[in-house]
Specification:
The protein has eight helices and eight strands. By secondary structure, it is an alpha/beta fold. The protein has an eight-stranded parallel beta barrel with strand order 1-2-3-4-5-6-7-8. Helix 7 links the parallel strand 7 and strand 8. It is globular and about 45 Å long. Bound molecules: 2-phosphoglycolic acid (PGA). The site of 2-phosphoglycolic acid has 13 residues, from strand 8.
């Protein structure tokens, strides 16, 4: 049986106290299963609120620079005190913060330098994937937060194209994944897991989704 990577992306949601409540509720409902690795990506402020969890932690962003005079940035050395993974290339960063290939490459390189595992998002099979990425997420923009997920056969088609160019990476699907449709994606041969936004904000729902994966 293949192993699955199940990633929660909280985006810009949850205070520290909400994150703690989420964690307690998740632990109550979560049934650990072999072959299912869970990674939770809260905001920077809540990263330190999670300790002794049954899940791993990821950051939602990383500075493209080394430590130094870069006001507002959180660098790889700081991140690795809390997180094992980092999300890079999400379409919300590309669109709202105008992140393009050059800055994304610099972010990946900082993450790799500090030993963080990169979960890199692409919105189609043509986008550039920098060297050092271990996990690629196919996440079409039309499917994000809309309740309209990609057709599983299209996800396979894109995953095939990504795999051709990046044979050693894991490929995840993201976009409107719910407990109702999770299995349609995790049962695809080329899909090694999912990234979940909206449906991860409710701890019980996310625990259920993992159970059904
Ligand atoms: P969604 O978001 O599950 O709410 O569609 C996924 C994501 O943007 O990572």
């Amino acid at each position: 049986m293949k192993s699955l990577l199940l990633v929660a992306n909280f985006k810009s949601h949850k205070t520290v106290s909400e994150a703690k409540t989420w964690s307690q509720e998740f632990e109550k409902n979560f049934k650990p299963a072999p072959g299912k690795e869970v990674v939770v990506c809260p905001s920077f402020t809540a990263l330190a609120a999670f300790s002794d969890t049954s899940f791993k932690l990821g950051a939602q962003d990383i500075s493209p620079f080394d430590e130094g005079a870069f006001t507002g940035e959180i660098n790889g050395i700081q991140l690795k005190e809390f997180a094992e993974y980092v999300l890079i290339g999400h379409s919300e960063r590309r669109e709202n913060f105008k992140e393009e290939d050059e800055v994304l490459r610099a972010k990946v390189s900082q993450a790799v330098k500090e030993g963080l595992k990169v979960i890199f998002f692409v919105q189609n099979a043509l986008q550039i994937v920098p060297e050092g990425v271990e996990v690629i997420v196919y996440e079409p923009t039309f499917a994000i937060g809309t309740g309209v997920a990609e057709m599983p056969e299209n996800a396979t088609d894109i995953a095939e194209k990504i795999k051709d160019k990046n044979p050693n990476v894991k490929i995840l699907y993201g976009g409107s994944v719910t407990p109702q449709n999770i299995k349609e994606f995790t049962e695809l041969t080329l899909i090694d897991g999912v990234v979940v936004g909206g449906a991860s904000l409710d701890a019980k729902e996310f625990a259920k989704l993992i159970e059904l994966a």
